[in-house]
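Q: Convert this sequence to structure tokens.
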Amino acid sequence: MFINSIIIIVTSMIGAILTFYISESLNQGAVRASSLLALLVGLFFYVFPDVLNVYLTKSIPVVFIGATFIGMASPKGRNNYLLLAVAGVLFSLVYINKSRFFNGYGGALGTLAFIALLSTLALNHIFSRHSPVLKRLQSIKNKVFKHKS
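A:
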């Protein structure tokens, strides 16, 4: 089970990064990059269903397609592959631990990708060097440790 989770996480990271790379570096556009990669992965597991175990054969295409939604993010100032990888990890962790309650509801992959990317960008903003939150935490730390001396 642990190996399956690692494979799902790596798949998600690759899906997000590769989609963004093909979209921006190869000038293919977000939709074309996402659909091309999703088609390749889906066809691979359709043609070779016995390459991996049943769980991975069913989950990898779904996770990869969801991760390509993360890679479709706008490049305006977000050309950071590390952030895309972190969003991919977050996406896959939520996917692995999702409740069966949501089975059958449409739009789950896109919503999950949006939440993962938005959460990652928010954390990046909070912990960036110029963040007011981080500056406030630094001033609190300085006050606390200054008074203890």
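DSSP finds six helices and no strands in the chain.
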